[in-house]
Design a protein that fits this description.
Layout: H1 6-9, E1 13-21, E2 29-34, E3 39-44, E4 49-53, E5 59-63, E6 70-75, E7 81-86, E8 90-95, E9 100-106, E10 115-117, E11 123-127, E12 132-137, E13 147-152, H2 168-176, E14 182-184, E15 187-189, E16 197-202, E17 208-213, E18 218-222, E19 227-232, E20 239-244, E21 250-255, E22 259-264, E23 271-276, E24 282-287, E25 294-299, E26 304-308, E27 315-320, E28 327-332, E29 338-343, E30 348-357, H3 383-389, E31 432-433
Antiparallel strand pairs: 1-30, 1-31, 2-3, 3-4, 4-5, 6-7, 7-8, 8-9, 10-11, 11-12, 12-13, 14-15, 16-17, 17-18, 18-19, 20-21, 21-22, 22-23, 24-25, 25-26, 26-27, 28-29, 29-30
WD repeats: 63-104, 200-231, 232-273, 275-308, 320-350
InterPro entries: Quinoprotein_ADH-like_sf, SKI8, WD40/YVTN_repeat-like_dom_sf, WD40_rpt
Region (Disordered): 397-452
Length: 452
């Protein structure tokens, strides 16, 4: 049986960083988006949202006044409506075609965090500190957006008190009786446990709403019935980002445990794979919108990775390391050939998939050891042969060591440039074109992670 070594040694896609704006914002960038109309959106702790063009990355609109900082942005499928969630618990809406504000939802203290708009722009959802997901209709009644549901997401599968038909007063009264079970509206009420909803996401087909919690639990709700239909487990730390595949059949989660998990709704057990290559919190992820087997992830380790899911455990097609601080958010272009990333130091970068495979560096001739990939086409299908043929260690005969090497003190470990504490890079009015070789990136310090 013939084998392929491509999963082990390639292919490697030729992703390169082509543009960079060192100070796209005056503070950390927490969220980015790329619309169907090719507009690039970034939201920051500087209380501003910037709208940029794809080609020159110049600002076309700038929306200010998002008190305490911008947490999350999302647009409808057409790319015309923008929703912005900020720490002041106000969700603001903008018309991207006209560049104007169109309304806002004052969710109330701790009742709003991240935000998601469904495919036909009829609903908007936001998670809360209280472990609930609030849903509003975007078809306004006068000047107000009507709240249509309040769902609870926690480990307790009876936590969805909205199913019992409780209004706020009944909910408060029931909470007072939490020491004993009580029947309200012919339903057994169990007070919801706080489960800070860190992210929410509508599926592209509009059928599902997912919510991820600080305890690692992911809840899946049926949008039509407003009932929870699945609880996805596997993480035990905060899940910062969840995203559906373009066909709505899979869900990908990014967690503080440095892993990404994939779930398939067609399978009884749901869980299908995990991906581990980051060394810090995984801050964000997104499936490629072209329907391919790829997704991208970014992390507190300062890297951005492009993955191929056709291989069990994932194969990293590219690892981008141009950022010098924690990478907080990312978004694919509609054709999946470009990627925008935003970082904690306020830097915004554009990466592009170029033709051909990424060239691999040849082995260092001065190195005593290097790996040589081999073909499995001519070997037998046995574990011993695979292990013996996987790589060949090259040691020059005249440098084979026969005696015990002298004990030496370990070298002093130097701090990586990415994590040095230096001054912020100078403000750049125009994005840097990184297609030339005359650019040397500057370092920036990592500060605290996004609020949780």
């Amino acid at each position: 049986m013939a084998h392929s070594n491509k999963a082990l040694f390639g292919p490697f896609e030729n992703w390169q960083t082509v543009k960079r704006i060192e100070k796209a914002h005056d503070a950390a960038i927490w969220t980015v988006a790329w619309t169907a109309q090719e507009k690039i959106i970034s939201g920051s702790n500087d209380e501003c949202v910037s709208i940029r063009g794809r080609d020159d990355m110049g600002i076309t609109h700038r929306f200010e006044g998002h008190r305490l900082g911008v947490l999350s942005v999302d647009t409808d499928a057409a790319g015309s409506i923008l929703a912005v969630a900020s720490i002041d618990c106000v969700i603001r809406f903008y018309d991207l075609d006209k560049g104007i504000s169109t309304g806002e939802i004052r969710a109330g203290p701790v009742e709003s965090w991240t935000v998601s708009i469904n495919n036909d722009a009829s609903l908007v959802a936001s998670g809360s500190h209280q472990g609930t997901v609030n849903i509003w209709s975007l078809k306004r009644n006068g000047n107000e957006y009507l709240q249509v549901a309040r769902l609870a997401c926690g480990a307790n599968e009876f936590n969805n008190y909205i199913q019992g038909g409780l209004d706020d007063e009944a909910y408060i009264e029931a909470a007072k009786m939490k020491k004993s079970q009580s029947t309200i509206n012919s339903k057994i009420y169990v007070p919801p446990q706080p489960n800070f909803a860190m992210d929410v996401a509508f599926s592209p087909d509009g059928k599902w709403l997912a919510a991820s919690g600080i305890d690692g639990i992911i809840s899946i709700f049926d949008v039509e019935t407003q009932k929870r239909v699945s609880i996805l487990k596997g993480h035990h730390q905060p899940v910062r980002k969840i995203t559906f595949s373009p066909d709505s059949s899979r869900l990908l989660s990014a967690c503080d445990d440095s892993r990404l998990l994939a779930f398939d709704f067609a399978r009884e057990e749901h869980f299908i794979d995990q991906y581990s290559a980051h060394t810090g919190w995984v801050m964000s992820c997104q499936y490629a919108p072209d329907g391919s087997n790829r997704f991208a992830s970014c992390s507190g380790d300062g890297t951005v990775k492009i993955w191929d899911t056709a291989v069990s455990g994932g194969h990293v097609l590219a690892s981008l390391e141009e950022h010098e601080s924690m990478v907080s958010s990312l978004a694919f272009s509609p054709d999946a050939k470009k990627l925008i990333t935003g970082a904690e130091d306020g830097c915004l970068q554009m990466h592009s998939l170029l033709p051909g495979e990424k060239p691999q560096l040849p082995p260092d001739p001065d190195s005593k050891f290097h790996l040589e990939p081999v073909s499995f086409a001519q070997i037998e299908d046995s574990l011993e042969n695979v292990c013996n043929t996987l790589a060949t260690m090259i040691i020059p005969p005249d440098e084979i060591i026969d005696e015990e090497p002298e004990t030496t003190q370990p070298p002093e470990v130097s701090v990586s440039k990415r994590y040095k504490s230096e001054d912020s890079p100078p403000h750049q009015e125009q994005p840097m074109d990184l297609t030339s070789d005359n650019h040397e990136p500057s370092a920036a310090a990592i500060s605290s992670p996004p609020p949780s």
